[in-house]
Structure formats: structure tokens, C-alpha cells
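Hi everyone,

Forwarding the result from last night's run.
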Amino acid sequence: EQQTTNLLHVDFTDLQSKNSDIIGWLAFDSVDISYPVLYSGDNSYYLRRLWDKSYNQAGSLFLEGNNKSFDELHTIVYGHNMKNGSMFAPLKEYLNQDFFEENGGWFTLYTPEGIWRYQIFSVYQAAADDELYTVGFVESEEYNAFLKMLYENSLYETGVTVYSDDHVMTLSTCTDDGKNRIVVHA
């Protein structure tokens, strides 16, 4: 059951006047994640830079360099798992089924074009070179098989169905030891 959420007012005109790489804003309903999403066309620029391009260990949330936009069937957003609990650190909570069941897995993506609601359907840990990091899909049997793999890899049953024409967003962060990745598919 989708919860009602208080939508944020995100002034993209103002944000993009400060940095044109800001392409969205991601906000969770139940954990402390509310940040701009940046796009540089690579997977390194915003690893150690804030949205204003200043150097910072925390980095920013950023869209996979091989994605072109949020309109694709599978998009990936990366963020650091910071020890102070910032950026994507709260995603760790979703490794716990009880947390998911108590809080649901809803988040909102704001873009200049519109607002989308996402619901988590799969959570697990994976290697950094896992095939889940594939983008560029079209609606096809290949995409169906990909969705099935994401769904079946989940640590627990979420009760959320994913359909062959769904646009899926993967949120990815490091595990605490940095060896693997925590991935959340919504």
C-alpha cells in the first residue's frame, strides 16, 4: 500500500543555474536520504565531489555514466556508504526484512520533467562486477530475464511485483567493508 508523502518543492532552475549536472533529486519516505542526483557521463567525477563540484570524501549521488537519462528501462544511481550515516548509508537498513516490512520501500525521484514514485522489490549484496550493472535494455525477453534475476536474488520476499515494461532503478553503495555492494532495486 503506497503511503501518501509530502512532496518536496525542488527548484531545478535554481539548482541547474549553480550546476547543470544536477538532473534529479532522490528522497526516501522512511530513511534519511534526500539529495540531488548528478550526471557527468562517467562514474568517477562525482565520487569525491559535492553537487557544487567542491572536493569532498562523501561525494554525491550520481547516475551511471552509461545511462543517458532517467527515461531508460534500467537506471543505476551510485552513492557512498558514509560512516556518519550520510549519502546511501541508510540503504543498509533494507538488508533487514523487518525494517522493510515496517517502513515499506518507497522513494521519490524528482526531475525537471516530472515526479516518479518507486517501490523497492529486491535487496541484496553483490560483487562490483555483477551483471546487475547492465544498462541499455529495450523491452525484450532479455530484459524480462534480467528483471527475474534481480527479483530472485533478493534476500527476502518483498511482495512487490515487477513487470516487463517497468522502469527499474538500482541504487548501489559499498558494504561497510568495501568488498561488495549493497543493491536496492525499485
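DSSP finds three helices and nine strands in the chain.

Cheers,
N.
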